[in-house]
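Supplementary Text 2. Reproducibility record for the structural model of the 215-residue chain.

All settings were left at their defaults, and a single model was retained for analysis rather than an ensemble. We include the record here because the model underlies the residue-level annotations in Supplementary Table 4.
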Amino acid sequence: MLNLKDCYFHSIICNGDKVLEIADSIFKDGKIMSLQRSGLKTDNDIRMNKKDEICLSKKGRFSFFYSGAYDMFVLRNLSFVIKGNLPEVYKPKFIPFSQTLITDSKYIDSGLTDLRDEFRTKRDISLDDVTALTIPCRDILESDVCYALFFFRGNILNLRHYRVSEEVRLQDLKKFYEALSQKMSEHKINIPIYDLNSKTEITSSADIQKIKKKI
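Retained model, structure tokens:
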């Protein structure tokens, strides 16, 4: 059963193919590392965290009052659910979003944050501390926008490129799940996968089909 009490989340914020590449690297290494330690490259370099920092978030009691990391990233991307007793986790210095919006480039690689529920660590996170993976299945099945952000982040030219049928969204989601499961199997990783919103454990493509029928 998925337990989200007092846990951290680490989200991979890239397009679908890149997410699989990064997840495969994490499974191979047996740990989540910073960009500096892993040598991985993301789709873009627009970020406020430093390259030696791993970004984490927590579900805040009042997270719906502002756009936080949990709402913006965990609910929209492949995320690792991590035990809440990680050592050497800290809160970066917060600055208002309105300030970063005006002079965004000034804060790239600054180590600051404009998200109140963001945490950071410079320490590698072992997969032994990961309790689950989450995929936003329900959101992808319900929304063209969520589908596009998950699979084509950074590559969307206009709305016509991602307004697809529900059946196409379903098939692409199943393919992603099967590819992710294959990579976990190759590296002998056994971590349960859930759809966060419906709290459904995904053990096969058939479970994604069940989510489709519920919505």
